[in-house]
Amino acid sequence: MRFDLPSVLVSIKDGVIDLGWGHPSSRLHPIEAIRMASEKLLASDDSTPLQYGATQGFGPFLESLSGFLSRQPAYGIPVDPRHLFLTAGASQGLDLACTLYAPAGSTVVVEEPTYFVIEKIFRDRGLNVVGVPTDSQGMLVSELENLLLDGLKPSILYIIPAFQNPTGLCLSNDRRGQLLSLANKFDFRILADEVYQLIHFDELPPRPFLAFDEGNRVISFGSFSKILAPGLRTGWIHAAPEIIKKFSDAALTFSGGGFNHYSSALIREVIDLGLLDTHVSVLREEYSVRSDAMHQALQLYFGKEIEYTRPSGGYYFWLTFPEGFDSDRLLTSAEKAGVSYRPGNAFSESGKFSRQIRLAYTLFEVEELKEGISRLHEAYSEYSIE
Amino acid sequence: MRFDLPSVLVSIKDGVIDLGWGHPSSRLHPIEAIRMASEKLLASDDSTPLQYGATQGFGPFLESLSGFLSRQPAYGIPVDPRHLFLTAGASQGLDLACTLYAPAGSTVVVEEPTYFVIEKIFRDRGLNVVGVPTDSQGMLVSELENLLLDGLKPSILYIIPAFQNPTGLCLSNDRRGQLLSLANKFDFRILADEVYQLIHFDELPPRPFLAFDEGNRVISFGSFSKILAPGLRTGWIHAAPEIIKKFSDAALTFSGGGFNHYSSALIREVIDLGLLDTHVSVLREEYSVRSDAMHQALQLYFGKEIEYTRPSGGYYFWLTFPEGFDSDRLLTSAEKAGVSYRPGNAFSESGKFSRQIRLAYTLFEVEELKEGISRLHEAYSEYSIE
Asked: Which of A22, A48, A310, B117 has the highest count of CB atoms within 10 angstroms of its CB?
């Protein structure tokens, strides 16, 4: 190799425990499951996985996925494969949803704070982004209603209903119903980014947003990035048949055939071998342990200096520091101390989250998490003294 | 399977030789190459292919691809891996190019006729589509210049410079230079869809459009769909570093990491095993034989009743029938006779191509191609009598 171009997305400085990345750890990647699935997929001379795939997605994959989702306690509703659509990951699905449902110049409503890349994706698509504040139950629906009554006309609303990024919180059942009422009354679609739905610990999250929808308002985005392997670039949409048809009939879909056809055929084998069910259980267990470890380290080092709601699933802690704290300012000294994180204002264009930081507990091992929190407190102590 | 959802994109009626699909034949899918590459990729416990990939693309893949392209006589220029970007196929790359270079409401120039799905993709993105006529040398640059002088301000120009879809013709060297001059003068980008560049027969096509570009006007789109396997949903962009950076830095790219990371790691093994070079040679040979067979059958059955330029590469024959012919009208009786094709007007919103039909010779075997042309002539004879 002459140029030594990077292989993976994350580049972490040597010696830094970077708690800023919401990525699975390399140790947990199911390489053996992928090996077994590949062998099974390629054992015959059937070349179907190499041809242009069906626009809705590879049929046998959709069937296996529907079975997998129906079996998951956190899904809690039976899934008809005719209501699923294959994507090349949640981001690709969301981007295509913009093409189909949010013409440039229209408005998208997001949570404040929200997934830090999504606002840029929407801006790149020429959309106006309007943030609505959240509390411990999720988006403040009453605030949204006021905006709508004042004349706001969004084409879509983007929301992360379960184990939200960055707050780790779930949108309550009541709020789900209220949001749907508003979507019906003011005629917009709800893009529900539910990629963390299956990563729960002891208690189950609310059922998927779609379970509350009696019409065709909710488009649910799922992904294998958080439950199998992000490199496979494969996900799905779950929605009413009319919506599935719109995605399937899109010119972009037809042009290349079903998105990530080969990967979906590989994942179908993973599912049929029972390895996805197993892997998701392993991830729930591992992340639960890591989340506990981070909680204990936070209690040990920070105690009452910070506030947070302990996550019951997902990838993140969302910490609130005392009045006057500036999470952007702490970052430099934290990195000097050998730890990193995402400052709160990365998650909102509002600039309201200087007191917050997001920590992910998925990429590092327990001992590293403890060490990371220790270093963070060290940096914070110096920051407080300054 | 309860619902029997389709597996692949193409659905061909039983008994019909459908010459309308520009797809590779199942018999030619390199299943053994994919098997060998998978074994090599998964032999170690390195889980890099399962993690989020580098935004520009998996580094080792870009290195191997640059070597492969540099070795191809039809490429004819050395390729720096830093000038390559991994896509999930040419269509995905083109869609992202719209986000980055063609804001909704702006204008895209296309050839008349052009790839029949691309106009719909552009329309779905809120773009105005303006067609420019072509002759045997490709787009009539003088006609485009007149439009530009009259005030047309395109953001992008989409063109298929080699073995064009549907005409099978190549844009001449002179026209390439002239188009670049116009792009510089009137400030637009050229999206060069060069997915057929490597599928040449005895003589080489002009060098890739980028070879003529001294600035940063041309974005070349390549794809493994036409040279390896469409189901892998993987392609690349070749362009100046400034353009590669723009694609790599796009929010959508960052959100999921490099497009189709795992597939690209698999294809890297195919390339490093020497199997892509071999496969492309096989395809050139096979398609050359099929193209000859179709030419001979056309001469045998139609003779001077139709006109066409014999293709020197690519996938297609573009036939012109006598004055007054209506290719849409023939379709029904052709399908009754057990053959199908794409009518000329599928390739342009202008409605100017009633006398044309496009035939692909890649999906069927030689004997089927002969039988298909025989049936087409049978249907045409009845049509002429009516």
From this structure: A22
Contact B256 A91 (CB under 8 A): yes
Answer yes or no: do B81 and A26 touch at CB < 8 A. Answer: no
**Integer Cα distance of A125 and A109 in angstroms:** 14
At residue B314, φ and ψ (nearest 5 deg) are: 80, -150
Q: Which fold has domain B45-275?
A: Aspartate Aminotransferase; domain 2 (3.40.640)
Residue B166: cis peptide before it, omega within 30 degrees of 0 = yes
Q: For chain A, first and last CA: distance in Å? A: 47
B146 φ, ψ (degrees, to nearest 5): -60, -45
Q: Which residue of B has its CA nearest to A43?
A: B35
pLDDT of residue B386: 63
Out of A117, A121, A231, the one facing B53 most closely (by C-beta) is: A231
What single-letter amino acid sits at B234? T
Peptide bond preceding B230 in cis form (omega within 30 of 0): no
- Interchain proximity A42–B55, CB inside 8 Å: no
B261: left (phi over 0), alpha (psi -120 to 50) or beta: alpha
DSSP string over A237-304: EE--HHHHHHHHH-HHHHHH-STTHHHHHHHHHHHHTTHHHHHHHHHHHHHHHHHHHHHHHHHHHTGG
Distance from CA of B194 to the nearest CA of A (A): 15
**Count of CB atoms situated within 10 Å of the CB of B153:** 11
Give residue B14's pLDDT band: very low, low, confident or very high (50, 70, 90): confident
CA distance A29 to chain B (A): 6
Buried b / exposed e along B290-311 (16+ C-beta atoms within 10 A): bbebbbebbeebbeeebebeeb
Domain positions in chain B = 17-22+277-385, 45-275
Residue type at A256 in one-letter notation: G
pLDDT tens digits along A165-199: 999 999 999 999 999 999 999 999 999 999 999 99
- Give residue B208's identity as a one-letter amino acid code: P
Homologous superfamily, domain B17-22+277-385: Aspartate Aminotransferase, domain 1 (3.90.1150.10)
Q: What is the ipTM of this complex?
A: 0.96
The identity of residue A292, as a single letter, is D
The amino acid that residue A153 corresponds to is K
Of A59, A232, A260, the CB nearest to B7: A59
Confidence at A101, pLDDT banded by 50, 70, 90 = very high
What is the architecture of the domain spanning A44-275? 3-Layer(aba) Sandwich (3.40)
Give the nearest chain B residue to A100 (CA atoms).
B124
How many C-beta atoms surround the C-beta of residue A382 within 10 A?
14
Taking only the tens place, the pLDDT of each residue in B168-182 is 999 999 999 999 999
- pLDDT of B1 above 80: no
Q: Compute how many other C-beta atoms are within 10 angstroms of the C-beta atom of residue B384.
A: 12
- Torsion angle in degrees (nearest 10) through CA of A19, A24, A28, A34: -160
Does A166 sit behind a cis peptide bond, omega within 30 degrees of 0 on the bond before it? yes
